[in-house]
Amino acid sequence: xxxxxxxxxxxxxxxxxxxxxxxxxxxxxxxxxxxxxxxxxxxxxxxxxxxxxxxxxxxxxxxxxxxxxxxxxxxxxxxxxxxxxxxxxxxxxxxxxxxxxxxxxxxxxxxxxxxxxxxxxxxxxxxxxxxxxxxxxxxxxxxxxxxxxxxxxxxxxxxxxxxxxxxxxxxxxxxxxxxxxxxxxxxxxxxxxxxxxxxxxxxxxxxxxxxxxxxxxxxxxxxxxxxxxxxxxxxxxxxxxxxxxxxx
Length: 248
What we know:
Layout: H1 53-60, H2 64-73, H3 79-88, E1 98-102, E2 108-110, E3 124-133, E4 136-145, E5 150-159, E6 162-172, E7 185-193, E8 199-207, H4 221-228, H5 237-240
Antiparallel strand pairs: 1-2, 1-3, 3-4, 4-5, 5-6, 6-7, 7-8
């Protein structure tokens, strides 16, 4: 099975960005007319390719990031953000979000996400939305690895620039594995700042693309180990390495 994203251990940098651009194709040469054969050779019948159930399902699925952009660009909010904002104490109707998108190593700030992915340079891409109200900050950060079919979302609540609640949803899309049990699945985890001054795990569950709970999928040992060992390394706003202009 493909590698699971080690996302939370490196929440600030989110890994390196590797260029996956194709080399420019060679300039086409003028066609040379060849003598036609007297009769075409008979073609061998080709067996019909029937897609597997997993392939059919994967072709009809919409990835979580596309769903998110559809709602955001319609000036709405997904249920997860609405719930999290209420818990964080942020009034979504009273605060305007500031956005940025990351096609490479640099965040590009914009008024919204209507142009998201238009500037994509690699298989790695990310966006962030920040809402700032008094001492409270809400961060919604999305990222993806298109070559592995992995998508992830961070929801962070900060009070006086210290993270008090962190929540992640990470999805692995079907169609990127040779396993006969290849299906789309997600993993959700939540942390809350405890009396010890550390973020403590509050919720762990597997989810589908609609963020509804599902039974644990069949995972290989390495993927299962990566999922269980997710941690939040960031503690403050500075650890997130986001542009300060997003707080304006």
